[in-house]
Amino acid sequence: MKNSLKSNLLLAMTVAGVFQFSCQRQSASMATSAGAATQTTATSGYGQGITSVDQMYENLEFNMPRVKETKFPEYSVSITKYGAVGDGITKNTKAFEQAINDVAAKGGGTVVIPRGLWMTGPIVLQSNINLHAEAGSMVIFSRDFNDYPLVETSFEGLNTYRTQSPISGRNLTNIAITGTGTFDGNGDAWRPVKKSKMTGAQWKELNKTGVLNAKGDMWYPSENALKGDTQGSNFNVPDLKTRAEFEAIKDYLRPVMLSLVNCKTVLLDGPTFQNSPAWNLHPLMCQDIIIRNLNVRNPWYSQNGDGLDLESCKNALVYNNTFDVGDDAICFKSGKDKDGRERGIPTENVVVKNNVVYHGHGGFVVGSEMSSGVRNIHVSNCTFMGTDIGLRFKSTRGRGGVVENIWISNIDMINIPTQAISFNLFYGGNSPVLEEDQRASDETRVEKLVPVTEETPSFKNIWMRNITVSGAAEAVALQGLPEMNLQNVNIENSFLKATRGISAVDATGITLKNVKVITEKGPALTIYNSKNVKVEGLTYNETKDPVVKVLGSLTQNVQLNGKDFTNAAAQISKGKDLGKTAVTVQ
């Protein structure tokens, strides 16, 4: 009896916590008619900004195949038919499973989650299922780690084992999650927490459960989880070989909230996804995906608390979403190092429009796991408020892969604590905002030239226009590799207000046209070991520093427009090691 009362008390506390964390949307109708008498098209009924799929194909710079859309039979079943109890304490895993089996056996349709608090273990989707969370519904995933067995999967671009995701689907066709309810991953039960991220009172309360590392500055939910973090790992993927070795540290292997692997014709429309154990939404090797009208939330301190990681996916639309997360918000990936190159599936043909990011390490991000490549991407009409970096491209030696043909326009950013736009091919894994347990030396440049191989990453052919930055530590940082320069980056018709200006290092084919740079210190533009740079229509505020600073013995063919300067000789600073013909003022 005593143990039962204690268990119920813990469950009640869990419900109270996640309910406080939740932020519900207004109610919306269920799936609406798609024209045919026996078919419905899944929708949340919630719309903003982009009001039709057709608008997503307007003004695209590449040939984008039209994404196939989901359709479902009118048959529907509520989880309450199979005994689900919405008290936030009763575990409803079997009711979800039986309702999904019922609808699948009838050829497909809708599984309805009514208003209420629905505790459950993992939900496994099937083909032709629309999981519809009605307004006021909240699905709370169990804190019992025994509910989540190990599964073979890919995480952070590597083939590995992880615990089963709260929501998952593999090799499915025609699936959807719709409505305006909430899915809460109970991530606080799983995630390690750094002492530096909490107040004294919060840290004291947290330490009533779990264990600390030897230094006493990192909390883990169990000894098992702590053991996983001391085995040696590739970031969060332990370097272990056998399933038994992974079982011994299972609590450490936090799952992504939603894992969809090799699925076709996918719709996510309307719900809130929040408080994930690791990444929030992870479509992997999927095709024909629509992600819209979502509210994606994680605590700001959440380890690996990404919003959306679209990995090795083809033909996708991402629009009208709001992100407020603890790591990268909208992130495109395609596998890591050898595992990613052997997969050989790029992320391609994706349109991203009308999204808002409130917090995250990056607003829109490519990498760093991009070993199969990323290409043919359109991003427009997005707002980033306080993200560590706004537009973020990252990789490192050993990745391989080609990122190319990226078009970005009409992006507004404010209060960016580091770079508004960042290309970093020396990415070392840490957040650019250094924390107490991180060192600046981890991001140190390596000047040594190494051979170009299949392990050399390449970023090229990227266009950015109508970018507005109102406050950042650095406007733009373009950093390639000495052996593989960042190639053909174009910035046009943009206003950049930051403490420091634009820098280009190991870059080739950089074009700046009609760009205004307002800085507090340093040059508006610094160029180092870069080639074929063309600048026209550069405007700036007057400071004591030179407007343009050109350095590096490898710098060649920098073309500046004389009309941009009142006194070019004084405003353009040239390094002593610069070739005599490296810079021309026309």
Automatic annotation (TrEMBL):
Xref: SUPFAM superfamilies: Pectin lyase-like
One Pfam family, short name: Pect-lyase_RHGA_epim
Gene3D superfamilies: Single-stranded right-handed beta-helix, Pectin lyase-like
Keyword Hydrolase: yes
Start and end residues of each Rhamnogalacturonase A/B/Epimerase-like pectate lyase domain: 77-154
Family under the similarity heading: Belongs to the glycosyl hydrolase 28 family.
PANTHER family: PECTIN LYASE-RELATED, PLASMIN AND FIBRONECTIN-BINDING PROTEIN A
Name listed for the protein in its UniProt record: Glycoside hydrolase family 28 protein
